[in-house]
Write a structure and sequence with these properties.
Bound molecules: pyridoxal-5'-phosphate
CATH topology of the largest domain: Aspartate Aminotransferase, domain 2
CATH architecture of the largest domain: 3-Layer(aba) Sandwich
Distance between the termini: 50 Å
Structural class: alpha/beta
Strand order of the largest sheet: 4-10-9-8-7-5-6
Number of domains: 2
Number of strands: 15
Shape: globular
Length: 455
């Protein structure tokens, strides 16, 4: 190796996982020079429609940090949108993936079935709410799971209409764009959208002040008048709206809706793609609201970062489709299934629901303390480690999207990855990996407090 080579040699990136130093370390401005180089290549090579939140080149992640190519170590309060709930590069996930990838990477489950797919289905049937007989089918992405839940509900009920809610987010494919409420950026210019989709009003206590039963009455009235149970195959709802602003419905809203669905031959689908897998302090958020969905869609946190999704639900509904009606080339890929089995083991053996509640207590107590001295924080809400602060104009209560964007941007510049959400773009959401330590979480919130104070 010549001296010139040595000078140019980039230190090998550190291995990810929990052995990464658990620290916030900002050694360049963000983005640093190497990250800027990648972002320039991205701009030239990757379609403009694919955005990014943190302007970095990620090279390793684990515990509660993401490390970039410039040697910065950022506190991760987003988990890649509630995906790496068990922690990035969790050792059990890494081991399971490495073993599987060396054995076989694909056969197509619809050609030559393998055990891990069946074991994931068994695990989902066991851990999802309700003790009725259940079955599952596996897919690649959340949107694909939602599409299939709708297919299954239509086939079972022999009806076509589907009701989704204000502020709902269900994906970016054609049917799921139709189900999603927010036009910009998810739908604008991408129509025409799938037909027979209707929208009902949500329970949004901070904005509507309605009790759960009253909000349910309002929604059911809209559904009965504008659609009619005779035409309605399914109602799909996120127990807590994710992209829509971490909106926690008032108590009694979801049970009343589920009860109406049961009484009217309508399939109640809980989209737990963001809320599932210990995130809200229970394995599934539905449990916390006292509802047992007919079908539940899962993805995101299911497999420690590998792409996998599922529909799980009542056996008689799940079995409504003829053979060959459900599936896909990659659905339930063996490497993703190995990662899911390892992740589900971690959720249970490390009692991550309990950890989510502890993380949530820190988040809520710190944010409510900030709110006490800052009228721009209109609402602090969430369940478990799915917590948000809604930022408003103190004089009018109107959403303050500009402040929200500025705060998130400055947090990232100071080495803390925070995400925003909300129909009005005025919600800062916290979805830390449950492998984050208390100290790091508190340091991230210290940075947020400094940034808010300066904003
Ligand atoms: C992310 C998300 C989806 C879409 O999942 P993808 O894997 O991005 O297709 C659907 N529903 C909810 C509630 C989500 O949070």
């Amino acid at each position: 190796m010549t001296a010139a080579d040595t000078a140019d040699t980039i230190a090998a990136p550190p291995l990810g996982g929990p052995s990464l130093p658990q620290e916030r370390r900002v050694v360049t401005s963000i983005p640093g020079p190497r990250s800027q180089e990648l972002l320039a290549r991205k701009a030239a090579a990757v379609a403009a429609g694919v955005g990014h939140t943190a302007p970095i080149e990620a090279v390793a992640a684990g515990g509660g940090v993401v490390v970039d190519a410039d040697g910065n170590s950022l506190i991760d309060l987003g988990s890649g949108i509630a995906v790496t709930t068990v922690g990035n590069a969790h050792p059990k996930v890494v081991e399971a993936v490495q073993a599987q990838v060396a054995q076989f990477t694909h056969t197509c489950f619809m050609i030559s079935p393998y055990e891990s797919y069946v074991a994931v289905a068994e695990a989902l049937n066991r851990i999802t709410p309700g003790d009725h007989e259940k079955k599952s089918a596996l897919f690649n992405s959340g949107a694909e799971a939602v599409e299939n839940a709708v297919k299954i509900a239509r086939k079972f009920t022999k009806k076509q209409a589907v009701v989704a809610f204000d502020h709902g987010y269900h994906g970016r494919t054609n049917l799921t764009m139709a189900l999603t409420a927010k036009s910009m950026p998810y739908k604008s210019g991408f129509g025409p959208f799938a037909s027979e989709i209707y929208r009902a009003p949500l329970s949004y206590p901070f904005r509507d002040g309605l009790s759960g039963p009253d909000a349910a009455k309002r929604a059911i009235s809209v559904i009965e008048k504008q659609v009619g149970a005779d035409n309605l195959a399914a109602v799909i709802i996120e127990p807590i709206q994710g992209e829509g602003g971490f909106i926690v419905p008032a108590d009694g809203f979801l049970p009343a809706l589920a009860e109406w669905c049961r009484a009217n031959g309508v399939v109640f689908i809980a989209d737990e793609i963001q809320t599932g897998f210990a995130r809200t302090g229970a394995m599934f958020a539905s449990e916390g609201f006292g509802v047992v969905p007919d079908l539940i869609t899962t993805a995101k946190g299911i497999a420690g970062g590998l792409p996998l999704a599922a529909v799980t639900g009542r056996a008689e509904i799940m079995d409504a489709s003829h053979a060959g009606g459900l599936g896909g080339t990659y659905g339930g890929n063996p490497v993703a299934c190995a990662a899911a089995l390892a992740s589900i083991d971690v959720f249970e053996s490390e009692n991550l629901s309990q950890r989510a509640r502890e993380v949530g207590e820190i988040l809520v107590s710190r944010l409510t303390a900030m709110q006490a001295g800052d009228p721009r924080i209109g609402d602090v809400r969430g369940r478990g480690a799915m917590v948000a602060a809604e930022l408003v104009d103190p004089a009018t209560g109107d959403p303050d999207a500009a402040l929200t964007a500025a705060v998130a941007k400055e947090c990232i510049a100071r080495g803390v990855i925070v995400l925003t959400c909300g129909t009005h773009g005025n919600v800062i959401r916290f979805l830390p990996p449950l492998s984050i330590g208390d100290d790091l979480l508190n340091e991230g919130l210290d940075v947020l407090a400094e940034v808010l104070a300066a904003a």
